[in-house]
């Protein structure tokens, strides 16, 4: 009996990214059909364990414009959608997705973010002079020619501190226990 590999997915309005996570896959067989059928099989591991999955994708796809790439860690598919629209899920099956099917958060973009620029690209800083904000890191009070004063304790000061600390502990009376009777 074959196992299901872990499959991650993400989408854009015109394409779907499908990544089959199967390190060192051998005998990889893949098939895409225009009606949206995605088939994958391979063996992996020292025992050549068989893996297989067949998915009925949510909608039709363009097989001729779709691509795949096999690496030593995974098999990546860029599946072109037949129509530019967002799918509500990857597969036709409603309800809970199979456990081996996961969102690829590294590639995920929400529908309303697809056409926008990366975060921060549209921020207008106006005519702010950042050198006047005194936020540190500026060159104003840095002088490379003068050596920095070392304010750390010397070995003698550290030893004195240990000696003073041990004397103060010796002068402290031992704690007495109080007996409480009920």
TrEMBL record:
Keywords, A to Z? Chaperone, Cytoplasm, Nucleus
Biased-composition ranges, Acidic residues, are 142-159
Any idea which GO molecular function terms this record carries? Hsp90 protein binding; protein-folding chaperone binding
One GO location term (cellular component): cytosol
- Which GO terms fall under biological process for this protein? chaperone-mediated protein complex assembly; protein folding; response to heat
Q: Where is this protein localized, as stated in its record? A: Cytoplasm; Nucleus
All copies of the CS domain together span: 2-91
Q: Which CDD domains match?
A: p23_hB-ind1_like
Q: Which branch of life, at top level? A: Eukaryota
Segments of this protein annotated with the region Disordered:
113-182
Give the chief site where it resides.
Answer: cytoplasm
Q: How does it assemble?
A: Interacts with HSP90 in an ATP-dependent manner.
Question: Family assignment?
Answer: Belongs to the p23/wos2 family.
Role summary: Acts as a co-chaperone for HSP90.
- This protein is called Co-chaperone protein p23
Species this protein is from: Solanum tuberosum
This protein's gene is called LOC102592515
